[in-house]
Structures are given as C-alpha cells and as structure tokens.
Hints:
The structure holds two protein chains of two kinds.
Chain A (H helix, E strand, L loop, with lengths): L6 H4 L11 H7 L3 H30 L19 H7 L2 H32 L6 H13 L2 H11 L6 H10 L15 H26 L3 H9 L4 H29 L3 H6 L11 H10 L4 H31 L1
Helix pairs in contact in A: 4-14, 5-9, 5-11, 6-9, 9-11, 11-14, 13-14
Chain B lengths: L1 H7 L9 H28 L4 H4 L13 H7 E5 L2 H6 L6 H7 L3 E6 L2 H32 L5 H10 L5 H15 L5 H25 L3 H9 L4 H30 L2 H6 L7 H4 L4 E2 L2 E2 L1 H22 L3 H5 L7
Antiparallel strand pairs in B: 1-2, 3-4
Helix pairs in contact in B: 2-15, 4-15, 7-10, 7-12, 10-12, 11-12
Amino acid sequence: MTTILQPDDTMIPGVSEPAKSRATRRVRGLSDRTIAWLFVAPTIALLLAINIFPLVWMIRLSFTSLNLSMSYLPLRFVGLDNFTDILTDEDVWFRLQTTAQFVIWSVALQVVIGYGLALLINRQFRGHSFWTTIILLPMMLSPAVVGNFWTLLLQPQIGPFNYLISMFTGVPPSSFSMTGQVSLAPWTIVLVDTWMWAPYVMLICLAGLRSIPDYIYEAAEVDRASAWRQFWSITLPMTVPFLMLAVLFRAIENFKMFDMVNLLTSGGPGSTTELVSITLKRAAFEKWRTGYSSALAIILFVTVFGAANIYVKALNKVKQR
Amino acid sequence: MTAVLTKSSAHSIVEASPRAKIVAGGLVILYAVITILPLLWIVATAFKSQSDAIAYPPKVIFEPTLEGYVNLFTVRTRQTPDFIAKLPPPETWYDKLVRQRDMVIAGPSKVVPRFVNSLIIGFGSTFLAVFLGTLAAYAFSRFRIPLADDLLFFILSTRMMPPVAVAIPIYLMYRQLNLTDTRLGMILLYTAVNVSLAVWLLKGFIDEIPREYEEAALVDGYTRLQALRKVVLPQAVTGIAATAIFCLIFSWNEYAFAVLLTSGEAQTMPPFIPFIIGEGGQDWPAVAAATTLFVIPIVLFTVLLRKHLLRGITFGAVRK
Lengths: 321, 320
C-alpha cells in the first residue's frame, strides 16, 4: 500500500488530459480501502454461505440424534454421544486403518515412480516434452470416470488386464479378480490411484530438479564428486521441499478419496476397500444418520486439518535449513 | 569453462551424456506407452460391437462400428424380425444399424441433457469463480488488507474438507432453499469450491505484473477501477484464462457432490456415465463412447495448459 500512489496526491494539474476533471473524479473514484473491501467481500460472503454456515450447522447437528429417514421425530440433543460412539466403534477404527494403508502405499508408490520419472525426464532427451504431456493425461481425468472404466479393464474374463498378466506369468486370466478378491482389492485401488497420480508427483519433482542451479553440479564436478555422491548431497536435499509438498497434497487428497474407489470397488468385496469417506457416505446418504455422520465428518475434518498443519510446520523447517 | 567441463565429463548431470539420454528416453517412452494403453483401450471399445466388447479373450483386432455411439444417443426397443420387416425402409444410417440388431429407435437418450447440464454448470461456476476470484486476488495483491494471510488461509482451508462431509449440511440447506437437484444450486456450490483456487492462482499471476504500470496510469489520472480494467486485466489475460480452464476442469470432472445432490434435472456427466445400461448390464461400447467424448475436451485443455499446469495443481505454490 505504501508503495502505491494515491491518485489525488500525485496528480499534477495540467500534466494530463483527464486531470481536468479532477474534482468529479474525487467523488467518482472510490478510495482504495473501499475498493479492497468491495473486492474481497463477495468471495468471503460466498464462502461463509456455502462453507462456513453449513459447517456451523453441522457442528450443531453432530450433538443431535437426527435421522433423516425419521425426520418427523423432534430434534433431540444427545451431547457427545455421537463422538463417543464413533471413537469406540471398532469398525470405524478399521476403516481409518484401511484409509491409512491406502494413503501410505499409494503416496509411497507415487513418490518412487514420480521421482524416478522426473529424474529421467530431466535428462532432456529429444521429444521429452511430448512424452511428458502423454504421461500427464491420467491426472487430468475425472476420478469417477477413471474408476468406472478401470472396472472394464480389470474384469477377470473380458478385461485386458488379467489377460496381459497371464501372458507374462502364465496364471490363467479367469483365476483371479482384481476388484472381487479380498487379497487383491486393496492393491487394486492403490494401483489405479498410482496410475492416475504418479504424474502429479513427477511434475512437482521436475520443477524441483530444474530449480537446482547448474553451477552447483559444476562445482561438484571440479571436486570430482561421483554421480552417486552428487545425487545424495545435491539433488535429493535440494528437491526434498518439493517432494514434501507433493506428499502433502497427495496425502490430503487420498485421505478424502471417495469418487474413484466408490466406482471401482464401492468399498468391496465386503468392506476391504471401504475408505472412511465411503463409510461417511453410507451413514449420511444411505442410513440417513445425519447426527452421527455429522460427528464423523467433523472428526475427519479435524484430522485432515491438524495433520496438514503439523506437516506444513515440518515443511517450513526443511525449507529453512 | 562451463562448456569445456560439460563436454569433458561424460557423466555430468548438468548435461546428460548421449547414452544416458537414450536410456532415459527409452524408459520414459515405455512408461508413457503403458500409461496411455488403458485410455486407448477405452477409445477402441467405443468402436466395438456389444459382442466384441465383452469377447473372451479380449479382442485387439475387430471390425469397427458406430453402434456404441448410436446406443449412447438413443433409447431402443427390441422387436420381432417380422415387425421390423413390415416397417418402411430405414431413413438413416443409424436406423439401419439398429435394425440389424432387431431393435427400433424409440427416442433420444438422456445423454444430451446431461451434457448440457455439464456445460451450463461448468461454464456458469467457472465464470462466477473467475470473476469473484479476480477481484479478490487483485485486492489481496495490491492493497494492505488486515489479516490478509489469515483470510487467504481461510479461503484455502475450505478446500480441505472431504466433499462427502461438505455435502451433508449442503444437502440439508438446499432442501430448505429448494436448491436440491437444480443447476443454480450446483453452480453456487462449484463456484464456492473453485473460488479458493481462483484467488490463490490469480494472486500469483497479478503479483507478477509490475506495479509501475498501474502507478503510471494513476498518475495519468485514471481511477483505480480504470487502471484495473485497462492496465492490469489485459496483462493478466493469460493467467485468467489458465485459471478459468482449471475451474472448468474441476466442475467438469466433479463427481461426489453431483452424485449426492442431483438425481435428474441437474445431473452432470460423471454420475451419468457409469449408469448407461444396455440389455443385461452396462452397455460397455456406449459407456466407452461417452467416456471418449467426455475426455476429449480434457485432453485439449491439458495440451493448452501445459505451461501453467504446475501452478494450477499446487495452488500457485510452485511456479516454475
């Protein structure tokens, strides 16, 4: 603000043509402070109406026993019952475990593949730009549509996936089902998620690699540092903040994961791939337990928010080093 | 000196050796081919007949047909061969195609209205989000706003909520306001989600425009608003366009809100596509045809956005 000149203070009469109407302009032109508020207010108002008001309402509902399929019942406040119910429910803990395993494995795989790809692409071979664009395509698609068409690809008989596996391993293609088998389904959602999001990690890591100035490597060359040594002492440490940023974004997104898995396995077989978002959807929109699901939603939100905050602090520490 | 160094040391990472480049290129191309195969399979399935699509073993070579696309756009009824023989000769190529399967076209399917919903909701929410986002981003970029960092963080944090969790109170609120399953309701909701991205991205873009241009305009007697319109906006045009495409892609691809809050009237493509049913289950060629048509704009956008992609997916945290 201090660097911005006020029109009224700086206008020199006679210098420019519009200066003639300075008197009218003073009335017509709004002050910077008014403009700032006029510009920010609509966005804040919209977010208050669509995000914050419903959130506050949800907090209120989480203390009630509201069930929409029996909404004729009077609203009954039950205190912290919903929260204690959820936190003592073994099933919920099991879903959280399923979700945590999904997040850890999918993010780990994406980091390995994404970082590897970024290192390779950074060698700037001919045509790398074209092939990078191809690799980026999956992450731009609708997760729901991806989940849906992978069910075709993974069909035990008619899908090409099992057929390809059998070509390489000799296992008969109809002898296993990627989405229907308890032992395979959790890996299937990790596989499809990695197919979709490894390019995301790749893109961020690539930016990290390109941010390292050449002269550091040149200095390392002068010191006769081996390629291996250069990687561990220069490349990796300098790309860690980027890698951590990618992990943060992916972990949050996958913790919330609903669309792709809902269409790929819809939580099955049994509940082996039932991520916590799917549990929430079932409680809220199939069993209509609004009070209970509001409490669960708040627990999830606090978890994401808390974890993200701790992580960002750690990220800042890494950056400062 | 630099040139000599990079040339003399074959294993320098600064400039990879030709052999390293070939190995890297080979591996990346292999990955790219594997990663694109599922998409190519879907595009191919759209041109298969129903029996080819579910053949065992899966068919790589087949006789292409437009049946999938015809099935996507029409509702058909099965008739006896006698009945079909008595009908007047087919008027169009698709009538003919359908009759070969002992079917008669009964009318258009719901795919066009769903597609129109996707377009209206997508463009409506994008326009609103970019409009509000540009104003807010300009204010955050150029004026000292009390608690600006907190406000910006608040704007971002609304995006951390799991969509299913947000949908619960929105469902209740929309029921009260008669906004359930309406395009307006979906536009407002998507605008709220997109505006956080728009503010963060556009603030980055506007920060990069030197203040000197505006200051010069202000000295020339422009008002703030005139300076914004005639000086800042023309410079921010690429950034605004990139932001708009990101918003459009989000609305286009969104599934969780759409499936939980719409059922017919305002339903968009993502919840519709998985439920394109033929006789006995999913009509895979038609589903694949819908997927192909749905994905084409995204592919074009990806190519267009290539330069700004990194910014968009990290909320402007990483610029280049």
